[in-house]
Design a protein that fits this description.
Layout (H helix, E strand, L loop, with lengths): L7 E9 L9 H9 L3 E3 L6 E9 L5 H13 L3 E7 L7 E2 L2 E3 L26 E3 L4 H10 L14 H15 L7 E7 L3 H6 L9 H17 L13
Helix pairs in contact: 1-6, 2-4, 3-6
Amino acid sequence: MAPNSQPVLQVLVTGFEPFDADRINPSWEAARRLDGWQCDLGEGKGAAVVHARRMPCVFGAALTALDAAIDELQPDLVLCLGLAGGRSEITPERVAINVDDGRICDNAGCQPIDQPVVPGAPAGYFSSLPIKAVVNALRAAGIPASVSNSAGTFVCNHLFFGLMHRMATRPSRPGMRGGFIHVPLLPEQAARLPGALPSLALDTLVEGLRISVRTSLTVQTDLRETGGALH
């Protein structure tokens, strides 16, 4: 039990297996470093413990794996991570959309085009994370961050939408929160690719995710400040 007999909150952090012929995926490398981390939420707020789970980069199978992890852990917070090669910042996603449209095949060779993630579900769901507060906290710590308004249409968005649909239709715990964060390439990945692609060191990603977890658990009302984009 946490100080003052408060319960220890359970946090599920997921990352993806490597895809598109790469050998590593920074989302999983960062998530696995958080496994077992005990987060002190501050005086009177208790503590939390993180459990990391690796997701297959496969349409459908990713949702099955996520459901199993949620059923197992009954988390208070679910933070799904994915790679956004070419981005220079840690980017909490604002919205998940109900469409699968693969630019490339997933790791099982599937490439759905213009298919719903969940037939009959809403067109989209907003994250329930305090995304602007997360960005603010990351920037205050000297870590590049911004709000993203598109999680794409590949397996990252697929998992994000599936998470939010489950939370909307069959939440595991009262007050459960969840969302998705994209992370950049690691330097060793960028070094193997042509051009000067941006990257962040693994230690920076891990520290950024610690901040993201703590902020998501302690900030109940998001900041009201600009996070929009012109395009």
